[in-house]
Amino acid sequence: xxIVVDAVRNxxxxxxxxRLEGDEVPRRLYAKxxxxxxxxxxxxxxxxxxxxxxxxxxxxxEPEDIETMSLELSPAVQAAVDPLIDRVLSELERLxxxx
Length: 99
Description:
The structure is a single chain. The protein is α+β, with helices and mostly antiparallel strands. The chain is 38% helix and 17% strand. The radius of gyration is 14 Å and the shape is globular.
């Protein structure tokens, strides 16, 4: 299993929570909407050539701006951090892990 947590551009309002899995993940590879798109998404594109492909879920939040490099979160993204953490914990529970 692979859970990726990242900012994901999905053309939604900043701070919107996003969950991609299954067939949604490969479609996103071509759009390259992640802030870490080159390394992570290209790696995910190559994984099917291996013997085992992990069940992948991408959990993210719509960023306000991906053009400006900053360590500061916009207010909308900051407000989404705790709900995003809750979603990560829910995914872990779904996989049989408890916290």
